[in-house]
Amino acid sequence: MHREVVVAALTVVLLASAAQACGAPVGDVVPNSPEARATDTRRTAVAEVQRIIANNPTATPPPGPSGTPGPTCPSAIWWTEARSHVGESRTIQGTIVMTRPAADGALMLEIGQPYPDPTGLAVLVPSTADAESLSGKTVCIAGRIAIAEGRPTVQLRNQASIVLVDANP
Fold first, then answer.
1. How far apart are alpha carbons 6 and 73 in whole angstroms?
2. What are the Cα distances from residue 95, in Å, to 31, 71, 105, 107, 165?
3. What's the DSSP call for residue 75?
4. Which of 59, 107, 146, 159 has the fewest CB atoms nearer than 10 Å to its CB?
5. Of the candidates 152, 162, 169, the residue with the CA atom closest to the CA atom of residue 129
6. Which residues in the chain land under pLDDT 70?
7. pTM summary value
8. Which residues contact 146 (CB under 8 A, 6 or more apart)?
9. Structural contact between residues 111 and 120, judged by C-beta atoms closer than 8 angstroms
């Protein structure tokens, strides 16, 4: 009987010290007191650690939409939108990624993506255009959008339909 009393007393002492070490309120703790807030903070932290250990992550909220800047030319569309405006006369903005000679002495300007990528825009201009001065420049071109060889194409009558957006070398 003596041994059972000692074990029971020891158990009570250990439970009381464990409760105190874990932040359980001891005695009369006044709500909203510093001790009660500290206990609540510890419990929240312990719960968060247990959630992480259990590999139970909370969902990360997706980032908000970032606005795509509009073209700098008035009423222009980006070269990526040209395919959805086939048959329309539009002003299109984009960067010339490649130039090459075309049939009948014309010049082919590749905007956005070079041939054979079907997403790029092909622009045919008369041979009076200076290919070296246009390569790598961002331009706005105005003309009717058609599909040729599976990609959007604009055929210009003169170089005046090409407006340089940036004049940087």
1. 89
2. 66, 11, 22, 16, 9
3. T
4. 59
5. 162
6. 1-3, 5-29, 56-57, 128-132, 166-169
7. 0.56
8. 86, 87, 152, 153, 154, 155
9. yes
